[in-house]
Amino acid sequence: MKVDLLIENVHVYNSYFKKFIAGNVAVLDGRFLYIGQRGTDTFEAADILAGEGRYLVPGLVDIHLHIESTMVTPETFSYGLIQNGVTTVVPEPHEMANVFGIEGIKEMIRASRDCVVDMKYAIPSSVPATSMETTGGTVEVADIEELLRSEEIICMGEIMNYVDVISDPNCKTNQILDYLRKNYPDLVIEGHVPKLLDLELHQILYAGVNSDHTHQTVEGLEARIGAGMFIEIQEKSMTPEVVEYLIGHEVSEHFCFVTDDVMTDSLFKRGHLNHIVKKAIQMGMTPEQAIYASTFTPARRMKMSDRGAVAPGKLADFLLLSDLQAFTIDCVYKNGKKAYDAAEEYIQVTKEKQFPAHFYQSVQLNPLTEADFSVRMDVPDNRYPCRVMLVQDGSTFTEDHRGIVETREGQLCWEESPYGLIAVFERYGINGNRGYGLISGDTIKRGAIATSYSHDNHNLLVVGHNPRDMMLAANEVIGMQGGFCVVEDGQVKARLHLPVGGILTEEPLEKTAKEVEQLRRAMEELGYKHYNPIMSISTHSLPVSPALKITDLGLIDVNAGKVVPLLLM
User: Fold this and answer.
1) Among 45-49, 282-286, 556-560, which is the least confidently predicted range?
2) Is 201 helix (H, G, I), strand (E, B) or coil?
3) Helices (H) and strands (E) in the chain, counts
């Protein structure tokens, strides 16, 4: 019998028994044909690969991530993924949709079509995430229908505005959910429901949202699984208690591993989903359990029955590991063809101008002045209690802290306070909105940072301790048509150019990783204390992430779902 490839003498991971079985593997037309003891006596192979006792496992499948979080194009992202054994991903282009609407989604899908890694897209469901922010684009029911008809869509992306889903039957998100239940009842619907328990959790499930990828506790994990919710475990949820629960209970069918957001330098240095697999093994999970949670269950969650296992008829996406415990990848095969070999040089070829011309002119803001960082307060001169966004290391959540600030001659005397200023400027040329707040905690103690990479609306976000540095940082970002800039004492300490929609670069992965590392270091030198300062600052404007955030409309009480004043009168 003729086959394209015969892999001899490997330990093959069997997803159905969750164990390794020694044998040979035959591949025909990009799919597994046979797994067992038969070899060259049965198969006439065009190519024979010596397994040498290594471990053959399915290609890794990541069903919840945002390419824009890595700040590179889909092609560059694929280049990074395949080296780390990831052969299928489900990206949700939520960020590009916030900048360009349905056009942004379509252009991300188009840019992914020739990638080595399979990219099965999710439709961003919450654009904007709330009604309390201005975005460059929106996604409406008609847009969802067009995408489902015209593109290869695998699921509805994370439902983020859980407050409205529970409290407002007529909100836009509930209209989308109603439409999907009636017209696409079998479509997978992903969720973003931090901290919800009891009745509110059950209301979300009743609405059709049946997964959660946010920060988990054992209590939340047990409540979700017990109610029939599928859990997607990202690294920040991998506490000893959570991992111990996953190991010690019969819940392997109810969770998988995902990455959600991976910084460029982390992808380049540590890896991707394989990093989470390694960490799970290091924390006590057996390799068999960790592989199951990164291949079979995610594929099944997304109804991708053609992958996630090494079995007859499945896509021949697989890895060869020389060390199972360390999850050391020797080579990666995609559709039965070698896509990456650790022993061979793997050079990235980049392309310029992969997107339409107007994607490179999306920051519609005039240069700012120092006066733009003066905050007008129409109140009598006095000392007032105020809200302060308290940044916390270890989480992208913030606290709604109480402080005291003085006003004088109609101005907020923030420079005399122990707090920094945080400001958001609407950057799409729609309404000129701007919001101001105070910030403290594990953030910068001097200088300024500005960025157009601010989830999810991607307006211009500026944090600082003096107007001059804030102005300089902001104008650098405006002049670059998007990116990050760190300034101290009138000097630019680091910058990252993100010209595609103000959120992506077309530069190579290695170059961008080094620039991201420099950016991170510059932020830390200004006093930022966080496991991921770039992600931390970029989520200060995310009004679905507890507890106090800021948009161009002002400060947002996330739990209450409303705009709140800076001063407490």
Assistant:
1) 556-560
2) helix
3) 16, 29
User: What confidence tier does 395 reach under pLDDT thresholds 50, 70, 90?
Assistant: confident
Q: Can you give the pLDDT at residue 67?
A: 98
Which residues lie below 8 Å from residue 275, measured CB to CB, with a gap of 6+?
84, 235, 266
Contact 157, 173 (CB under 8 A): no
Residue percentage of the chain with pLDDT more than 90: 95
pLDDT at 227: 98
Q: What's the mean pLDDT when you consider all of the chain?
A: 97
Please write the tens of the pLDDT for every residue from 522-563. Answer: 999 999 999 999 999 999 999 988 899 999 999 999 989 899
Q: C-alpha angle with apex 302: 299 to 306, nearest 5 degrees? A: 50
Cis? peptide before 111, omega within 30° of 0:
no
Q: Which regions of 358-490 does DSSP assign to beta strands (E)?
A: 382-391, 398-408, 411-412, 420-425, 434-441, 448-451, 460-464, 483-488
Q: What is the pLDDT of residues 451-510, one digit of tens each?
A: 999 999 999 999 999 999 999 999 999 999 999 999 999 999 999 999 999 999 999 999
- From edge to edge, which strands make up the β-sheet containing 118-119? 60-65, 86-91, 118-119
- Give dist(CA 368, CA 473) in Å, integer: 10
**Phi, psi torsion values for 315, nearest 5 degrees:** -55, 135
DSSP secondary structure string for all residues of 68-133? GGGTB-HHHHHHHHHTTTEEEEEE--HHHHHHHTHHHHHHHHHHHTT-SSEE-EEEP--SSSSSSS
Contact 505, 496 (CB under 8 A): yes
The C-alpha angle with vertex 42 and arms to 40 and 48, in degrees rounded to 5, equals: 35
Neighbouring C-beta atoms of residue 490, cutoff 10 Å: 11
d(CA 411, CA 302): 53
- The tokens for 537 are 């600052």
**Residue 416 main-chain phi, psi, to 5 deg:** -90, -5
240-248 and 218-226 helices cross at what angle (nearest 10)? 40
State how far Cα 389 lies from the chain centre. 23
Lowest mean pLDDT among 146-150, 169-173, 356-360, 414-418: 169-173
CB 545 within 8 A of CB 397: yes
- β-strand 55-58 against 2-14: which pairing, if any? parallel
> What's the CA gap between 94 and 108, in Å, rounded?
10
